[in-house]
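Exercise 7.
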Amino acid sequence: MNKAVSRFKAILQISGCCFFIFWAFTAGAQTRGKVEVIKDARIDTFAAHRLELNKGADAMTVNGFRVQIFTGENRKDAYNAQSKFLEQFPDVKSYIIYNEPNFKVRVGDFRTRLDAEKLQNDLKKLFTGMFIIQEKITPPKQDTDD
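Solution. The predicted structure, written as tokens, is:
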């Protein structure tokens, strides 16, 4: 019987100790503290510079249209399609986009769907399965005559 009582006392002492430690941590967590952030001043400069760059990028893009001339999983085929397009239309910008697992080749920066349809019509002999995509484009610079 003495062994059972001594085991009980030992368990009570251990659990009491654990309860005291738990209480000490929770009591400390409820008091308000002060957080001091130490950082390099260049971080703020970098963040401000990045914000300015992002503002400029958004100002340069508008809603428009592109013609998608290729979709496939093979990267080499995508670059071949882009080269084939640029041989015929060197003045028109082309973009390769990778959305796993497909590569897509999109061409042109058109403000209107009609302009994109004109290019699509010109490309019918070279490419099959083309379609027009509406997305953000970089509009071509307009000539201003003063």
